[in-house]
Specification:
The chain has 233 residues and is α+β, with helices and mostly antiparallel strands. It has 12 helices and 4 strands, in the order H-H-E-H-H-E-H-H-E-E-H-H-H-H-H-H. A hairpin with a 2-residue loop joins strand 3 and strand 4.
């Protein structure tokens, strides 16, 4: 089935983490815009300690050297290379053959540019046009809302991210009980416990019961350190 803006919006709304977002949405964005390459970059997750990446930042992603980045930062609106530079100048800035046509849009949170969505096409393909910019603008708006919502949730205490039932399950996990034992204790099926744990792992961005329990104890220790009663134990 052909990718539509609506299907892209639905994928954004269903994503639970920024990594989850990249995996699920990038193929759809690439298909929708007929892009050779596509990417989502959050600036606070870039490998800044990588010397090779530092060179890319200095030239390819710098305000001084890249007019597309400068346009994004100044206006917080999507742009393609034709809006800000000539083909000759762009060839010098970015000589890659698969980056001949470039389009980028902003991810904004609290009035700050926190990330970028980018698409590229080869020289043999048609350039991105104003309709592509309008569509990317709509996608970026959804991504900005999603980012603000998820990052706010991730700053919430452990207990505020889980439902009362999920907190009960977390307590049982911390006691070392199996899914079957938890189901028996809480009067729910073993499969219900399994599905609940999957949701909890996504919410807390952990991949194991041990990691989840570690967060439980970290939260408990923090609350005790500020003289507040534990929310879980």
């Amino acid at each position: 089935m052909k990718t539509t803006l609506k299907s892209i919006f639905e994928v954004i709304n269903q994503a639970h983490s920024e990594n989850d977002l990249r995996v699920q949405i990038l193929p759809k964005i690439g298909e929708y815009f007929s892009a050779k390459r596509s990417g989502i970059f959050f600036f606070d997750q870039l490998p800044l300690e990588d010397s090779k990446f530092q060179k890319i930042l200095k030239f390819g992603l710098s305000i001084e050297h890249n007019p597309i980045v400068r346009y994004l930062i100044e206006r917080h609106t999507p742009v393609h290379e034709g809006l800000v530079t000539s083909p000759m100048a762009w060839k010098i800035i970015c000589p890659r053959r698969d980056h001949w046509h470039v389009m980028a849009g902003p991810i904004v949170n609290s009035g700050q540019l926190v990330g970028v969505v980018g698409c590229t096409r080869e020289k043999s393909r048609t350039a991105f046009d104003t309709q592509n910019l309008a569509d990317l603008s709509a996608i970026c708006l959804h991504l900005s809302v999603w980012t603000a919502t998820v990052r706010l949730q991730n700053h919430q205490p452990y207990s505020e991210r889980l439902t009362p039932r999920e907190l009960q399950i977390a307590e049982q996990v911390a006691l070392g009980r199996t899914n079957a034992e938890i189901g028996h204790e809480l009067w729910i099926t073993e499969n219900s416990v399994k599905q609940a744990l999957k949701r909890m792992f996504r919410k807390l961005e952990v991949s194991s019961r041990a990691e989840m329990v570690a967060q439980l104890y970290a939260t408990k220790s923090h609350l005790q350190s500020v003289n507040q009663p534990p929310t879980i134990f």
